[in-house]
């Protein structure tokens, strides 16, 4: 298939030029990431990035708007029985860097030119807030409600940030890394290998070896 | 009402005949001056395809505003993926869009493979594409039958379920599961195709092409269906893309955009010869028509691919414990319901750090508040049926 | 369930003759009206079992016509039960008149299933309503659901109406299909 022979980045150079020309100083860092162009903008320029995308970059299609929390999940339990696959414990940002814990990111595409841009912006940890994209992409309404619900990021200019998925009485922002999954705290993760032995063969009289492939598709925590 | 004695005579009113028409209208408005009614449709309702709740404010039969309340199927996928290893996530994600389950696994597995810089062998790519197209056919055949059901015709639903059984038989023969096959592995597939599967698929595809002709006559050619669906729920193309409506819904509004042809190349689509169907109207009938043509197109694509499956292994060499190196990637594919994408953030651990799942139906349904203003209640059902969302895809 | 006052009728006084009881149960078990309630992926298998000409649950007498719980006597909870959905389930279950039966289909409805650790999923519908038959699987094949219904029908045939009316320990152990 083409992925092996094609270069790691397949971003159209014209897109790179247009972004640099239109946004200029507002771009903190930009990187070509496989087929996607990731652009980190200053938080004040979040809305302007969307305006530029719609007018200069011909991006008429809104894919999504969401948040990122770079803090590693606090560990529960000891190393022998972790409650989840262990992640590195230092907080490091991803592609195009980042300062702080929270980022908001969104992806827009052009149905005419066939390219897409992912915009990222840092938001403050204590009071995460950016401007809303709803005036430019009306579909951002629900995406921003979801990002608020899951991360607590406020979108100024949004007509009404209220719960989308969760019941109204739900407290907390679930996708934040410090929101614990209580079921996992109670029951440790069985790990990667089969925990159940294969049943012995009654006719043979000799039990089958219990080890199987291990990293096959096993449901997490099935008891 | 008193039955004793004659009624008092009504007062005489001198009315200009030319003004009679306006008077009659004014009288009607006065008589029927009612307040708005709030009608709660769902979350349990035969016509809402699952647990979608629409709080509709009605003026008589006309919808003034409709507010979808979702979240009755929210299972917390994005949080759950942070607590599972990569193969375990593969198990979980094929339940997002539960009709075309195989197609949900493909972008995630492809993302993990690209981050690991490995590639599934060509035979695995072909089989993946065939199974994706089969799941597309299964989803669309059900749609063709079910939209007839929503509009009021019972027969197409039975045809739809019967034809879907043939395709599910095939998927089960290859993967072991009717849906939720869990067949993709990072690096390829779990198993090779069984003996005789290719011949069986050819027979079934011939049957599917016949059924498409049946549906075209029975449903799309039916004048009642056409009256119910033409001109209903028109989505203009610019509004549709600003809301993120994708897939057949956007193509029915005239936007010629299909990720299999226009996006970054994935699976074996660059080697196939297929047509992307669009329709200019953007109404419910157009959406039905586009999906009907796409079902035929998928069956023809499967027939093309069956002649060309290369020999070889179905799985590359991957380490026993899968650790995906650090990085981020965005992979998007053309799923039956629309564009589905995964933004996978990996920190080099056994499981993903963050997975953002961009599901097609979420954006398709977000247009409902805009779309449902001013429609009648029966048309509301037609519009919901024609947009074709799956609750698991909306709520994740 | 009537508790106060004089015993009226056969069922109240506990003396239902066997042939009458047999006839009542026979007619009840072959005319189960199923409430249309499909939540998630298992609903598709349930629909395939009902509407699909291959599995065809209607030949067992299970007709899925009622859209209102007030006319139904069987409910099949098929799919994941979330905390947001639970008040609706409870309310709809309470609207069903007795005698009513509940089949919990799929592992999500049985115990939370693959989403057992989620923050928004109820770990099993039996935390909210009492369940008569558990049909395990993810999703269970339509044949498994048919088996569950047949086992439920066998149980209905052997039920004692008067015990049930008086509320005395009529509910046995829930049936688990495949055990």
Key words describing this protein structure:
heterotrimer; B: 396 residues; mainly alpha; Cytochrome-c3 Hydrogenase, chain B; 3-stranded antiparallel sheet; 8 strands; 48% helix; globular; C: 179 residues; alpha/beta; 5-stranded parallel sheet; 7 helices; 5 strands
CATH architecture term of chain B = Orthogonal Bundle
Can you tell me the CATH class of chain B? Mainly Alpha
Characterize the overall form of chain B: globular
**Oligomer description:** heterotrimer
**Average of pLDDT of chain B:** 85
| SS elements, strand count of chain B | 8
- Main sheet record of chain A: 5 strands, mixed
The CATH homologous superfamily of chain A corresponds to NADH:ubiquinone oxidoreductase Nqo5 subunit
What do you see in this structure?
- The complex is a heterotrimer of chains A (223), B (396) and C (179).
- By secondary structure, chain A is an alpha/beta fold.
- Helix content of chain A is 19%, strand content 20%.
- Chain A has a single domain (13-216), classed as Beta Polymerase, domain 2 (2-Layer Sandwich), CATH 3.30.460.80.
- In chain A, strand 6, helix 4 (140-151) and strand 7 (154-156) form a beta-alpha-beta unit.
- Chain A is globular.
- Residues 1-7 and 204-223 of chain A have low confidence and may be disordered.
- Chain B has 16 helices and eight strands.
- Chain B has helices at residues 17-31, 77-81, 86-93, 101-116, 122-151, 155-175, 197-220, 223-229, 237-243, 248-251, 259-262, 284-306, 360-366, 368-371, 377-387, 391-395; strands at 37-41, 53-59, 62-69, 184-185, 188-189, 327-335, 338-346, 354-358.
- In chain B, a hairpin with a 2-residue loop joins strand 2 and strand 3.
- With 179 residues, chain C is of the alpha/beta class.
- Chain C has seven helices and five strands, in the order ααβαβαβαβααβ.
- In chain C, helix 3 (41-51) links the parallel strand 1 and strand 2 (74-78).
- Chains A and B meet through helix 1, strand 3 and helix 4 of A and helix 2, helix 3, helix 9, strand 6 and strand 7 of B.
